[in-house]
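Q: What does the assembly look like in three dimensions?
Context provided by user:
Components: two
Sequences:
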Amino acid sequence: VAALPPLPEPTPGIDTAISPAFQPHLPAVDAFPTQLWGRLWGRRWRTSAGPLLAPSAQAASAPLRTALADQLNAGRGLRCTAEQIIIVTGGQQALELVAHVLLDPGDKAWVEDPGSSGLRAVLISAGVHLCPVPVDGDGLAVAAGIARHGDARLAVVRPAHQWPTGVTMTLPRRLALLEWAYQAGAWVVEDDSGGAFAYTTHATTPLQALDQGARVLQIGSLSQLLFPALRLGYLIAPPDLVEPLLWVQHLTSRPPPAVDQAVLADFITGGHFAQHLRRLTDLYQERQSTLLAACQRELGEWLNVQPATAGFHLTGWLAPGLDDRAVAAQAAALGITVTPISPQRLIPGGPQGLALGYGGVRPELIGPAVQRLATVLEERR
Amino acid sequence: VAALPPLPEPTPGIDTAISPAFQPHLPAVDAFPTQLWGRLWGRRWRTSAGPLLAPSAQAASAPLRTALADQLNAGRGLRCTAEQIIIVTGGQQALELVAHVLLDPGDKAWVEDPGSSGLRAVLISAGVHLCPVPVDGDGLAVAAGIARHGDARLAVVRPAHQWPTGVTMTLPRRLALLEWAYQAGAWVVEDDSGGAFAYTTHATTPLQALDQGARVLQIGSLSQLLFPALRLGYLIAPPDLVEPLLWVQHLTSRPPPAVDQAVLADFITGGHFAQHLRRLTDLYQERQSTLLAACQRELGEWLNVQPATAGFHLTGWLAPGLDDRAVAAQAAALGITVTPISPQRLIPGGPQGLALGYGGVRPELIGPAVQRLATVLEERR
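A: Here is the predicted structure of the complete assembly.
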């Protein structure tokens, strides 16, 4: 058995004295209405413990799928039915199902470079050949992808708010990506993470809503919207693919627990989900402003941070000479989590930078954390 | 996309008028202490919602792993530490992790024939080459396995109460299997399903407890002990394998929800788990007696049912001329679920039979269900 890097440490709970700054992908768990959720859970358990004890199945998740379809169609402009939705434990399980059904080992798939190492790991473990496609200021460089790997079978993209660069993919690029998929008979997996939080008046249209050829599958994490331990997500597939995807889920991992699904359905249909997203949008906008101001004040010369139009992380580019891995390692020793960009690249080189998740950081802790980061940068420059 | 058989229907809840007879692997959900579980859940949520909202990780599952190690060491005679346990969503996810870490595509694995189609599907999806090894009255025919597929890398067995034959593997066979694993450098995955319910004074010793060479991994479903929607299970691995198995889980599916793990830990440490297992053992013994008597009374000439020393299903062998698939299909039309043996065989032939799960069937419904099954057999003979 080969030597492995240490497993990531567990995230401290929100009731610890200091929230983890700047943990990526962590939502504002401090703002989650835990009392309300507890009441909804108790009501479900008292009234329907019987059916909820039974094995969960696609039919049992119908209330959640219906609620989610309404929510996503209204909130994200999607065009999907409840029948097209499969409830999964998260984005990674969703991609695992997709890879099982649509790809054979050795098939090529575009991945964003830099991009999500978690999603790449799923493809690697399915025996898929990764084709890195660069991300520039307009998002995925579709033309470069076509020139280098036009024969790929799948593209995995995060257009709303790319990880880790924070770029939003432009509409022309989105359309070019779909056009390639239609021409090549390829599939597009859209990770809509960050898309629920848009801070501009003109929100971008998801690929799922633009798709005219039933080539787009959208994956989304509900744990990343509400709280990580929820372990629920969704996969929206073209109608023809739903049955085989459900079969693979049935044969490998089975659907997530029925109780959590029922409670989440109540949370959505009661209007609490939409309300919580609105509250989070305000909160994230405030946290982003606070973080941006602190970075410009404290780190101005060393880290060039730009505002983001969606999501809940900011990306900063380091001044020449600063090494992002070294900065991140030294910051970690001071209790500050920042994500270096370089390890997210498949093709080495390109600017060095840091991604700072601010979703789960209480605003009063942002300033002190940035000051601590400043001491690291000052020392290393 | 190839045509697929229809997905299994969801199991009706326990509060429907008629429990599903004779649904395999369904525990006595009617006897589960739902009120107690609801109280434990509420207490956990009120006191520790903060930490429980955070992403779950191996460290966060320490209380459950400690409780489970104590429970399994005392109750099943295992010799494992909390560090050797990985919490998973069920036996299938456990085997998926094992296949990822220990096998390469094309590697050979012994599977019991007849045996579990669910576990086979996991191996197939990992690209593993299945080697059917026959099961006789003493369990897996180890000598036949060595003669035909001595170079396999893995054996997947269910020694306590084989599915679907109901056979318990004898001690000499268990020792022979371990000896082969040591000689061949192969791994043994022990599915301990059914082992928690032993109706004889001399319970058999699990392979995990017999293993002197760190070649056995045990998988177990907690959902099959308590209630299916729990979606929790465990994998016990030799110490060296824990870290790579956790990595694969981290990269693909992540650990199950933290809240359920915390509540289950409370359920075990409060003594409720051991108490519930004792209650289930009595209940299953009663249900087995009722089913056995009904079968002998109503089906005597057509179905030869033998008592089982463990688990919660009975296996009956059909009189010559009766086709198990046809019987099962006709019974299903009358609302009776019986599992035909033939489809669980990789090598066709051998006696035809039916597996009858009795765990989730209330005793007063057993007689009427068997009478309905008698009408099917009478018509088809």
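Follow-up: The two ends of chain A are 39 Å apart (CA to CA).
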